[in-house]
Design goal:
- The complex is a heterodimer of chains A (111) and B (332).
- Chain A is mainly α and 111 residues long.
- Chain A is 80% helix and 0% strand.
- Chain A has helices spanning 2-7, 9-19, 21-32, 39-68, 77-99, 104-110.
- In chain A, helix 3 (21-32) packs antiparallel against helix 4 (39-68) and helix 4 (39-68) runs antiparallel to helix 5.
- The longest helix of chain A is centred in the middle third of the chain and has 30 residues, at 39-68.
- Chain B is built from 10 helices and 13 strands.
- Helices cover 21% and strands 20% of the residues of chain B.
- In chain B, strands 1, 4, 5, 8, 9, 10, 12 and 13 form an 8-stranded mixed sheet that branches. A 5-stranded mixed sheet of chain B has the order 3-2-11-6-7.
- In chain B, strand 4 (141-148) and strand 5 (153-163) form a beta hairpin.
- Chain B starts with 20 loop residues before the first helix and ends in a 13-residue tail after the last helix.
- Chain B has a single domain (15-323), classed as Sulfite Oxidase, Chain A, domain 2, CATH 3.90.420.10.
- Chain B has helices at 21-25, 27-41, 43-55, 84-89, 102-106, 131-134, 164-171, 209-213, 265-269, 316-319, and strands at residues 68-69, 116-121, 127-130, 141-148, 153-163, 179-184, 204-208, 218-223, 226-227, 237-239, 252-258, 293-296, 307-308.
- Chain B is an alpha+beta fold.
- The chains are: A mainly alpha (111), B alpha+beta (332).
- The interface between A and B is medium-sized, with 15 and 17 residues.
Chain lengths: 111, 332
Amino acid sequence: MLRQVLRKPLTKFGLVLVCLMPFAWLCSGIFLDGLGPNPAEYLIRSTGDWTLRFLCITLLVTPLRVVFNMPELLRFRRNLGVLTFFYALMHALCYSVFDMGLAWDEIVVDM
Amino acid sequence: MLIRTQQDGFIHPLSSEITEQAAYANRRQLLRQWSAGAAALGMGSWAQREAFAQGGAAAVKLAALPATQSSVQGAMTVEKATSYKDATTYNNFYEFGVDKSDPARNAHTLKAAPWTIEVEGLVKKPTRFNLEDVMKWGAMQERIYRMRCVEGWSMVIPWIGYSLSDLIKRVEPLPGAKYLEFVTQADPQTMPGLRGGYIDWPYLEGLRMDEAMHPLSLLTFGMYGEVLPKQNGAPVRLVVPWKYGFKSGKSIVKIRFVEKQPVISWAKSAPQEYGFYSNVNPTVDHPRWSQASERRIGEGGLLDKKRKTLMFNGYEAQVASLYTGMDLAKNF
């Protein structure tokens, strides 16, 4: 049953959609003033948190596949990896734009 | 012959429209209060705060703490005050959690009354004082200070209190007293953050005697016209505006007069990152981030540039002389 669901093309699409929900939620926060007194800090921290979460999930795919003998899981690994990269990119962008104002000389020093 | 009736002459007002005599007699005082309030806070932040007080379920009406405007040099910045909501829901008070929204959520357990302050060490007569008595040792003043956190954000807050020097003079330090050590409340029953092992509780802070005697060092009992909210260090805290915020200890229970420089909590936890002085200094970076700029909470949008951080948080004219001849990069 589970294996059949995992094989469906729609499952892949659904997974990506679900994984983009934190991003959608953060975006709505920008416009609805839902990010607290320091929105820049909130965005930088939460995109960083989500990067780490997705990194853990991505790295879990192979061990789970082996332990439960479910080759179907492999279908999602690349999507999850790309999502991890997406959140990492958002994190880097939020830091560079909101915290450093794209001042590259300061960014280099800060790194 | 002129016969006056109810129908002519002046119009008789309803008795409910007549100003009470007591209110009329107090009109000058009322006007003074209004103008002082407007000058101190700016009507904008006042309106914001009113909206919060009326709208937020978390808003608890605190006791008013009457005060006069301070005449101490540098004590009344004209910058726009941070909203009450931001100043009371975004701050660090690790005894109640490490997240900046934790204090507002968790500090309701703090028992702010009855409260005593113990004065011990090199003073004429070490004594435990009741807070009510300590509050009478100086005239309550309102002071609008910049507050710069070591993490790189800042606020403008109208505090109420009196110069710490008033307390120091009252307890008569002995000649050997060179430093003050502040011990803050550490009660595992009411402070969930004490389970965190990053600090050796209780949280300790310290000042050199001349720093503590500086008129800008404020023994603080209130903010925004009221007594301190619990999350901001009720019922008594320190505010030292030219130093990073963590130097201003909250919920103080003991003041020790000592001869040797005390080891403050953050310098003990991370000596390479935090020093005893911790003066705001844009030229001395934190090992992990730059201190050249700061984000003023509530100011500007996401894409606005941050503010440049000022030497001694803008109090250079008042306090620089305390540090003449000192290498501030070494004594950070």
